[in-house]
Design a protein that fits this description.
262 residues; alpha/beta; eight-stranded mixed beta sheet; three-stranded antiparallel beta sheet; 40% helix; globular; binds ligand 48H
Length: 262
């Protein structure tokens, strides 16, 4: 039998603390912060990291995937329509054709491969961290990063101040509540953001509308995925995920373009 290497407790702790702190030293000045590791956030992370931008995803929960895992009423299959199938094929997700241009995928496979691709491209996904505010600058008014706190600390109700992470672009990929954009709208009237709220279901038009409306809501602050519905008052679409993936890809393309300009 192979002999298992003996590692003392203090060394285990030292390695973890040292390597974690090295990562955080790097993360505090990021190119792009993505809030939320759902389908739109992880797709954006993949394309941004692939383009060479230092990209970090903060996810409140201790797992990635957002709404993918819950599927439709917890059924484990999701619907994808073209042209999102091309993106999923790039991620290695197997697609079963069920109609012309329409496919079903396995929820667990979808979230696992999405995360794996984003991480392999160089994006950092940090779990258990909640973004609860933004950093702003004047002349011109803009978002310049985020405030982060451990989700567990937030849940405890303890009065603990956050850490700040600076970024050239912040993506709200928090889903239905558009949490980051909502905080900015409330605290920074000079950014002129309004959050009218999403509309009821109209799947056939919602998918295209989400993709078309993905983009900046204020300088330095972008909306992707269901957050776009919340901010632009668009209908929801239910458990069809093509637009989430295409919105993540589009926000990445827009940010890459904007950051190359500046
Ligand atoms: C850190 C946060 C914070 C925060 C939230 O909901 P998601 O899956 O988001 P999308 O937009 O990529 O995908 C939406 C899709 O899952 C969906 O719900 C669809 C298609 N619905 C259609 C319909 O009609 O209902 O993921 C958002 C992620 C989650 O993992 C949250 O835990 C996380 O963001 N999150 N993370 N700080 N403040 N708020």
């Amino acid at each position: 039998m192979a002999s298992v290497r003996r590692v003392p407790e203090s060394k285990i702790s030292r390695f973890i603390v040292e390597e974690t702190m090295k990562d955080w030293m790097d993360i505090v000045e990021s190119d792009v912060v993505i809030v939320g590791a759902g389908p739109s956030g992880m797709t954006a992370a993949y394309y941004l990291a692939k383009a060479g931008l230092k990209t970090v995803v903060f996810e409140r929960r201790l797992g990635f995937g957002g709404g993918i895992g819950g599927g439709a009423m917890q059924f484990h299959r999701l619907v994808i329509e073209e042209p999102a199938d091309e993106v999923l094929s790039e991620f290695g997700v197997r697609l079963k054709k069920v109609d012309e241009g329409v496919y079903v995928v396995d929820a667990a496979e979808f979230m696992a491969k999405l995360a794996s691709k984003a991480i392999d491209a160089g994006a950092k996904i940090i779990l258990g961290v909640t973004v609860d505010d933004v950093i702003f600058r004047e002349d011109p008014p803009r978002v310049a990063g985020v405030a982060v706190e451990w989700t567990a600390t937030q849940m405890s109700g303890l009065h603990v101040d956050p850490l700040f992470i600076s970024a050239k672009a912040v993506v709200d990929a928090t889903g239905h509540d558009a949490e980051v954009i909502s905080v900015a709208a409330r605290k920074l009237p000079e950014l002129n953001i309004s959050v009218p709220g999403e509309k009821s279901a109209y799947s056939e038009v919602a998918e295209q509308l989400v993709v078309d409306n993905t983009g900046p809501v204020a300088p330095g602050l972008y909306a992707a995925g269901m957050a776009v519905c919340e901010v632009k008052s668009l209908p929801r679409m239910g458990p069809i995920f093509g637009a989430m993936v295409l919105s993540g890809k589009r926000v990445a393309e827009l940010i890459i373009h904007d950051l190359r300009k500046s």
